[in-house]
């Protein structure tokens, strides 16, 4: 009887892992404090980003007295906050700027083979989104949490080439980056 229960639990765990196609990255583990009457209360803040490397990403922040609990909370919140990113093959369809507090992140599409030119939290977010060719510039504040949130803001500002072409009354090919248009004419 006990063996059946163990097998059933093990099967459920395998089914959950197979169903969850998201990769998870811990961006930051910070010790934060709250000043109270008797001194300082320390807790841990963990920032986690999840993504399927196919245009779906999410971010979560968890706080707890212990790091594992904070990581679990952050992971759960990241999976609840999933959003879709508009991609154009291996890059983004157009330039975008994201601003959060003092942090600004500028994203610029790049031709195939360029790679991800980014560092830290920005690189992790872009790789989990499935973007393989992009140029970035982080300006202003270097606060990791704000930079990651600004990256999400920039990615949320991206529009689908098809929708944008319809809005402007142009063809989709006219809105593609110059290296894509060059391939079509050759």
Main traits of this protein?
186 residues, alpha+beta, 4-stranded antiparallel beta sheet, elongated
Descriptive account of the structure:
The protein is α+β, with helices and mostly antiparallel strands and 186 residues long. The protein is built from 6 helices and 8 strands, in the order αβββαββββαβααα. It has helices at 2-19, 67-80, 120-129, 144-156, 161-168, 178-185, and strands at residues 23-36, 39-51, 56-64, 83-84, 96-100, 103-109, 116-117, 134-140. The strands form 2 sheets. It has a 4-stranded antiparallel beta sheet with strand order 1-2-3-4. α3 packs parallel to α4 (144-156).
Any idea what the shape is? elongated
Distance linking N and C termini: 69 Å
- Largest beta sheet: what is the strand line-up? 1-2-3-4
**What is the helix fraction of residues, given as a range?**
25-40%
Task: Tell me the fraction of residues in β-strands, as a range.
Answer: 25-35%
Low-confidence segments, ≥5 residues, pLDDT <50?
A: 12-19
Major sheet size, sense and barrel closure? 4 strands, antiparallel
Q: Oligomer, anyone?
A: single chain
Total helical segments: 6
User: Structural class per helix/strand content?
Assistant: alpha+beta
What is the tally of beta strands?
A: 8
In sequence order, what are the helices and strands, one letter per element? HEEEHEEEEHEHHH
Could you tell me the mean pLDDT? 85
Radius of gyration based on Cα positions: 20 Å
């Amino acid at each position: 009887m006990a063996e059946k229960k163990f097998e059933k639990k093990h099967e459920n765990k395998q089914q959950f892992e197979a169903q969850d196609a998201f990769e998870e990255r811990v961006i930051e583990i910070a010790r934060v404090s709250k000043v109270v009457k008797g001194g300082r209360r320390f807790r841990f803040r963990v920032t986690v980003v999840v993504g399927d490397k196919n245009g779906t990403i999410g971010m979560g922040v968890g706080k707890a007295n212990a790091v594992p609990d904070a990581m679990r909370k952050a992971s759960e919140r990241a999976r609840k906050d999933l959003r879709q990113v508009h991609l154009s093959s291996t890059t983004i369809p157009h330039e975008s700027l994201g601003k959060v507090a003092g942090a600004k992140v500028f994203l610029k599409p790049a031709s195939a083979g360029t790679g991800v030119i980014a560092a830290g939290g920005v690189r992790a977010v872009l790789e989990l989104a499935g973007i393989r060719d992009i140029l970035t510039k982080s300006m202003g504040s270097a606060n990791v949490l704000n930079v990651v949130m600004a990256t999400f803001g920039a990615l949320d500002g991206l529009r689908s080439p098809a929708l944008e072409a319809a809005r402007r009354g142009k063809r989709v090919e006219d809105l593609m980056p110059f290296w894509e248009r060059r391939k079509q004419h050759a």
